[in-house]
Amino acid sequence: MTPRDASDDSRWSDLDRPPLNAAALRRGLIRDGGLWREVEVVQRTGSTNSDLVGLATDGKAVEGSVLVAEEQTAGKGRLDRTWTAPPRSGLFFSVLLNPAEVPVPRWGWLPLLTGVAVATGLSRAAGVDTALKWPNDLLVTVGGEERKAGGILAERAGDEGVVIGVGIDVTLRADELPVPQAGSLALAGAVSTDRDPVLRGILRSLEEWYGRWRAATGDPVVSGLQETYAAGCATLGRVVRAELPGHRSIMGEAVAIDGDGRLVLATAEGVQEPVGAGDIVHLRLA
User: Fold this and answer.
1) CA triple 249-254-259, angle to 5 deg
2) Are 162 and 57 contacting, i.e. CB atoms less than 8 angstroms apart?
3) What 3-state DSSP class applies to 145?
4) 228: which DSSP letter?
5) The Cα angle at residue 78 between residues 199 and 26, in degrees rounded to 5
6) What is the DSSP letter of 231?
7) How far is the C-alpha of 259 from the C-alpha of 106, rounded, in Å?
């Protein structure tokens, strides 16, 4: 892949969806002593996560690299799901992190940390409240209903790196929704859907939270991450069904996020069972 600025292409067929300004993003994000070192915007690619994992594995990307695509043709979600959206209708980007100071067992907090950072950034830059569905979905309210407007995917990149991918539907219209349960910032009444400042706001928030977590050597209590994630998690207090690997499922009330970032379910049998991986279905409020 040879990245090139999407802003170099004069693709203005949809005036409501102007291209990102790569040069302005670099000016606003790259600074001495900061986390972000490289910001590349490409017009179209299969998956920013796959591209950045490949670059990192080949030693061609450094910590703080950001890869943004105006369109993804093979965007990836958890459990091998795909993510597609019209060109320039959202923010589809990946970042490379190298949390060398943090013990590897605590790296599992990175998707949750990213969720907190994205929710904080969207509140500041887009004026929209975003709730977190454990472990990696971003929820907005459209017409009084919870809708998924984004997701997060973390992948290892060699022995030392982690690539975090984020996809957010920004200006997706009602007639463009892939499923009725989907949403977008625009449909949720965002005060701004200008993707440049929204992306800058998210990345600045991610830099802030990542720095705080890394300075605490990944301790979710000392960094404030565990408390903040729990406060914004729409899954807690709900009766949910956890669909687990191996075609097993359990149902119970989501009562806590434990120190390892796992969702703790209180089952009808009186057992508290931590869930570290799986698909969570919100059933109702407890």
Assistant:
1) 105
2) no
3) strand
4) H
5) 20
6) H
7) 9
pLDDT, mean of residues 253-259: 98
In the predicted model, is pLDDT for residue 104 greater than 80?
yes
* Pair 90, 84: CB distance under 8 Å: no
The string of pLDDT tens digits covering residues 130-187 is 999 999 999 999 999 999 999 999 999 988 999 999 999 999 999 999 898 999 999 9
The answer to whether 74 and 89 are in contact (CB under 8 A) is no
CB atoms within 10 A of CB 132: 25
Q: In this structure, what token pair is assigned to residue 283?
A: 């059933």
3-state secondary structure of 46: coil
Instruction: For residue 25, give Cα distances in angstroms to 5, 68, 72, 84, 198.
Output: 11, 11, 19, 24, 11
Q: Which runs of E-coded beta strand occur in 30-99?
A: 38-42, 65-69, 75-76, 82-83, 90-97
Q: Give 231's contacts (C-beta < 8 A, 6+ positions apart).
A: none
**H-state helical runs in the chain:** 22-29, 48-57, 110-125, 195-215, 225-232
Tell me the pTM: 0.92
124: Cα separation from own chain's centroid: 16
Cα dihedral across residues 25, 28, 34, 37: positive or negative: positive
β-bridge partners, 152:
166
Query: In this structure, what token pair is assigned to residue 159?
Result: 């022995």
Smallest Cα–Cα separation from 24: which of 64, 88, 68?
A: 68
